[in-house]
Amino acid sequence: MSTATLPGEGSVSVRLWLDNGPDGMAIRRAEVAARRPRAVAALVGRKAEEAARLAPLLFSLCGSAQGLAVSRACETALGLDAGAHDAARSLLTDAEALDSHGWQAVVEWPARLGAPPRPAALRELRSAVSAILPSLYPAKDGMRPGGGVLRPDSAALRNALDRMAGWLEAAVFAGPPPRDADELAGWAARGGTDAALLAARLLSPTLSGWGACGAPLLGERSPGWFAAALAGDPGFAAAPRRNGAPALTGPLERQAENPLVVSVTECFGDGLARLFAARLADLAELPRRMETAIAALRPADPVAAAPANSAPGEGCGVAETARGRLAHWLRLDGDGRLADARMVAPTDWNFAADGPLARGLAGAAVRDRDDAEERVRLLVAMLDPCVACGIDVHE
Fold first, then answer.
1. 135, 227, 346, 366: which could join 324 in a potential S-S bond, CB 3.0 to 4.6 Å?
2. Annotated binding residue at 74?
3. Is 386 marked within a binding site?
4. What is the pLDDT of residues 25-58, one digit of tens each?
5. Does residue 233 lie in a domain region?
6. Which residues of this UniProt protein bind Mg(2+) (predicted)?
7. Are strands 314-321 and 24-35 parallel, antiparallel or unpaired?
8. Do residues 257 and 277 make contact, with C-beta atoms less than 8 angstroms apart?
């Protein structure tokens, strides 16, 4: 039973085989395949600044994070120190992550409840998000290697942040976000938003612990680690490994120690409830983190040139997205053009053939094929691939 049209720009496909056993029906085997075009190859042959400008156009999602990772890789390869732009750039990628989470909350999560999506509800959020870049970089050049002309407008930034936080409070939480499992259950029972209604469903005894993947959290943040992995193995992105094993990246990795996630894990263990709690914690943290970044902003100018004794080399840039950690590695030739470029994205980790999704599905109990399909869609939504997902179920 095929349940999705897979677009030409890439896809995740899930094939399930169900079997009746002594304890009822379960997923006997799950095959997960991620087909994400290696658009990064289009960067090869470009000058560093052109590559950083092109990167957001090559990837339909997380464009700011893509541009930032490429810029950071170019800066390392060129010997540029753009540290004065770190707070501004983090503000840009956090705003993008909030937009991505927001889309999930009003489009994907209602679909998992059988309700109509509400894309129009994103209008206010996206208006506020779009105000961040010109309020930092009037020429909108913040992602160029070496940074742009940073002239933060604190009043405009705080206004945009207030609008984002207000949207979040109204559209997702209908009040303050829950802080532990008891508050989460009470919030879910009130059902004030689609997110709360989905929480009520995921906290049910039949779903809360379903989909436990058992994959370790990625944990690695060092550009040096990603550089060694990507440069040393051209096939790393197709089957990424940490310590020889698959790993999970994304909200749960970032929020594993958050009090809400710790409390939900103690009550329900691993599975859908824990993954959803991590997404809520990630959402709730973003405005606070952005407030800290705004307070740290100072005007800065571009870093125009590398030290005189440096020569083009290799570099790796890492950036956070709503879905997890993104890394770009590249090598410049003597003319400063990209001679090689490689990347690993969150979907490569979470939807690897033996990654978190595949591990969460193998052996999981289901009632029938329709129930299996919907449970898979819930788990896919919690892991949130950057491409469409098709599901085939076989008995």
1. 346
2. no
3. yes
4. 899 999 998 887 678 889 999 999 999 999 999 8
5. no
6. 343
7. unpaired
8. no
